[in-house]
Design brief:
With about 200 residues, the chain is of the alpha+beta class. The chain has one domain. It contains 5 helices and 9 strands, in the order H-H-E-H-E-E-H-E-E-E-H-E-E-E. Strands 2, 3, 4, 5, 6 and 7 form a 6-stranded antiparallel sheet that branches. Strand 8 and strand 9 form a beta hairpin.
Length: about 200
C-alpha cells in the first residue's frame, strides 16, 4: 500500500495529466507489469548500490494507465476518477481526469458574490498539459495549459485543485505546482519519450 501511495504521489506531482481510459489500451497483465517494475524501482532505491552504471527501467503509457484502471483505485484520491496519462515525448505529458468539484468548492468558497468557487460544482473533466524536467534526483513540472470542462482555467484554480487532492498528514497544504520536488527511491532522472518513460537510478 505504501509503495502504491508513493507512486501515485509522484505521478500526481509530476503529471497532473490525466484522460478517460479507453478499454482497448489497458489490461490486468499490464497493470501487474507496472507493479513489478515499481517494486524493482523501490528495491533499488533501498538497496546499497552494486554498480556505478545507471539502472534504467522503462514504463509504458499503457502499463501506467492499466495500473490506474485495475490497481490504483485504493490510492487515487476520492473525487478523482478515470485517470489516464498520455506520454507525448520530449518531456511533455498530457491527459484528463474527472474531478468532483463539489467537495473542493465547499471547502474553498468564501460565500462572496464574486467567488469563483460559488460557480463550480459537479463532476467535470480536468485536462492538463505540461513538461516534466528531471535531473540529479529532482524534478519540476512546467504547466502549459489546463481546462476544466473544456474551458481554460487559470493556474491559481488548478493549484487549488492540486492542493486539495494531494494533501496528506505530512503535507497538509498538498503539492505546489511550481515547486521543485525530490524524486523518490534514489531516482536520478525520468526520461519522457513517446509512449513511455524511463526511470534512471
Amino acid at each position: 500500500m505504501t509503495c502504491r501511495r508513493t507512486v501515485f504521489g509522484v505521478i500526481l506531482a509530476i503529471a497532473v495529466a490525466l484522460a478517460p481510459v479507453d478499454a482497448g489500451d489497458v489490461s490486468r497483465q499490464q497493470a501487474d507489469s507496472f507493479l513489478k517494475k515499481v517494486a524493482i524501482i523501490n528495491q533499488r532505491g533501498t538497496a546499497a548500490p552494486v554498480t556505478a552504471a545507471a539502472r534504467r527501467t522503462p514504463v509504458s503509457e499503457n502499463e501506467l494507465n492499466s495500473w490506474f484502471a485495475y490497481r490504483g483505485r485504493d490510492v487515487i484520491p476520492n473525487g478523482i476518477t478515470q485517470p489516464k496519462v498520455t506520454i507525448i515525448g520530449n518531456g511533455r505529458l498530457m491527459g484528463v481526469a474527472t474531478v468532483d468539484l463539489d467537495a473542493v468548492s465547499k471547502q474553498r468558497s468564501s460565500g462572496g458574490t464574486f467567488d469563483l468557487w460559488n460557480l463550480v460544482g459537479g463532476r467535470v473533466p480536468l485536462s492538463v498539459t505540461g513538461v516534466l524536467q528531471t535531473k540529479g534526483g529532482r524534478g519540476t513540472f512546467d504547466l502549459q495549459s489546463a481546462t476544466l470542462g473544456g474551458v481554460p482555467v487559470p493556474k491559481a484554480l488548478l493549484q487549488e485543485l492540486l492542493s486539495y487532492y494531494s494533501r496528506t498528514a505530512q503535507k497538509p497544504d498538498g503539492v505546489r505546482l511550481d515547486s521543485p520536488f525530490e524524486l523518490p527511491a534514489r531516482i536520478q532522472q525520468i526520461e519522457v519519450g513517446q509512449g513511455q518513460a524511463v526511470v534512471v537510478q
